[in-house]
Amino acid sequence: MKRPFISALLHPPHGSWVWVLGPAFLAALPHFARLPVAIGICCIALWTLRLFATQRPSLMPSRTIRFALTLGCISGVYAGFGYLLGPEPGTALLLLLLALKPFEAQGRRDQILILFTTYLVILLQFLNSQSLLVAGYMALVVLITTAALLGIAHPPSQTAPRFRIRQAAILLLQALPVMLILFLLFPRLPGSLWGMFQNPQTGVTGLSDTMRPGDISELLQSSEVVFRVTFSEQPPPVGTMYWRALVLWETDGRIWRVGTNPEERSGTAPVERTHDTGGSWTIHPLTPLLEYVLTMEAHAQRWLPALEMPILPHVESRDTELPSAFLQLMQRGIEPTADFRLQLREDLRQRAQYRLFAALEVATPNPTVHERSRALELPPSGNERARAKAREWAKSAEDQRTVVAQALDLFREDSFVYTLRPPLLGEEAVDDFLFRTRSGYCEHYAAAFTFLMRAAGIPARVVVGYQGGDRNPLGDYFVVRQYHAHAWSEIWMEGSGWERVDPTTVVAPERIEGGAEALVPNIDVPRVFSSRELGWVISAWRGLTQGWDAANTLWNQWVLDFGFERQRRFLERFGLPGSSRLERFGQLALALGLSFVAAALVYAFAGLRSRPTRDALDTVYARFCRRLERIGIHRAPQEGPRDFAQRACAARPDLATAITVITDGYIRLRYGTLVPDKNGENLDRVQIRELARMVRAFQPRQSWMSSDQNEASAKHCF
Question: Which of 192, 390, 441, 492 is the most buried if burial means most Cβ atoms within 10 Å?
Answer without folding.
Answer: 441
